[in-house]
Amino acid sequence: MAAILLAGFSIPGTAPGETAPPVSAAPREAPATSAPLLTIGTALRLAIARNPELQNTADSFLSARWNERAVRSTFLPQFTPFFAFEKNDETGRRTDTYGLLVSEQFLFGTALEAQAVIDRQPEAVEEEPYVGDFRLTLRQPLLRGADPAVTAEPLRLAKRSTSAQSRAVEIARRRTVLLVYQAYLGVARQQEALQLANDRVEKARELTTFSRARFSAGSVSRLDVLRAEQQEASTVVARNDAENALEDFRDLLRRTAGLVENEAFSIAMPVELPVEEPDIEAALEERMSRRPEAVEARDQVGDAEFAVRIAKSLELPSVDGFLRYEASGAGRSAGDALHPRNPALVFGLSSQYGLNNTVLHARRRQAEIDLGVRKRNFDVLADDFAREVRRAYRRLDALRRNHEIAEENERVAELQAEVARLRFEKGLSDNFNVVDAENLLNSARLLELDSRVSILLARLECLYSSGRLDVHPFLNLP
What we know:
alpha+beta; six-stranded antiparallel beta sheet; 6 strands; elongated
C-alpha cells in the first residue's frame, strides 16, 4: 500500500506522476575490509620504536652519553708523544727533539705531570750528542679550587646531562603512550559514532518514506514530510562529519605510531588498562618521587647548590703548592741519556689574586639568586603536581558518575524512541515526537560512548599525574 501511495505522490516543483527526488544519495555500503588488525599493544610498540619525536629524544640521550665518556676520559692518564727537528741555515746544524708527556688530573684537585725529553745534536757535541731532561711535577691548589667540586664539576655536569636526557626519554615514552591511547580511542570512538550515524540515516530514511506514505493517505500533514526530510538531511550531514573525523583520527594514529601515511588497518576497542591507578592519597604522597619531571627539578636545585659552592671557592686567592723532581742525562746514545744525573727535588708555592674581584663576587651572588629561584620553582612544581593529581581524580570520579547517568539515560531514550515510533505508526501522533526522540536517543548514545572512552583516558591521566604510568606493562599488551 505504501508503494502505491508513493507512486502517486508529488510535491511542488515535480511533474504529476513523478516521485519526489531523494534527499540524499543511497546509503553507501561499508566496503569489506581486509586490513590487518592493529591492536593497542601493537600500536604502542610501533610508536615506541618509530615515533620521530621519541627517536629524537633518544638520540639526544645517546649524544649526552658520548659527551660524558669524552669528559670522563679527560681524568684518565694522558700520553702525548712528540717529535720535532730544527735546522740552522747558517751553521747547518740540526737538532732533533723527541719525548713523552704524561699528565693526569685527579678528581680531588691534584694534578700530576711527567715529562721526558731527549735532544739530539750530533754536530754540536760529538762526545755526548744525546741530552735528556726529566721532570715529574705534583700540583695541588690550596685555596682557590681546593674544593674537589671545582675540579670534578665538568664530569658532574656531563653526568647530569646524561641523567636529564634519560629522564627526558622516559617522559617522552610516557607521553607517547598517552598520545597513542588518545589517537587509538579517538579512532574507536569515531567508528562507533559513524555506526550510530549510519543507523540514524537508515531510520531517518524509513521515517521519511513512512511519512510520505501517511501524507499520501491523508493521515498526516505536509509539515510531517518536510520535518522527516529535514531530519534525514541532518543525519546525512552528521554522518559525513563522523567520516571526516574518523579519517582525521586515523591520520593522527598513523603519525603517532610511525605508520606509513596511508597504511590501512583495523582496530579493536580496548576496554581495560593493564594497571590500576592508585588511590589519591598514595598518588599525592609519591608524586614527587615518581614523576621524572619532579626528580629533574630536584636535581636542578642540587646543580644550583653546586654552582654556589664553586663560586665561593673561586672567590678565594689562588695559592698552589707544587713538588717537582728534576733530573738530566747525557750520552752517546739515547739509552745513555735516559740515565738521570744530578737529581733535584723542588718545592714551592705560587699565588695570584686580582685587586678587582667584582666579577667573581657577582657570579657568586648570581648563583645564590639562581638557587633561590630553583628552590621556589620546585615548591611551586610540587603544588602544581598536587593540583594536577586532584584534578585528574576529580575528573575520573565525575566521568564514572556521568557514565552511570548516561547508561540509564540511554535506556530511557531507547524506550522513549520506541514508544514515539509506535504511536506514529499507529496514527496516534505526528512525527514530531519521533524526530525529537531520535535526536535525544542519538545524544544519549554519544554521551554514553564519550563517557566510556573518557574514563579510560582519565585513568591514564591519573596514572601519568601520579607517576605510576610505567611503560613496560603497556608494551606487553597483545
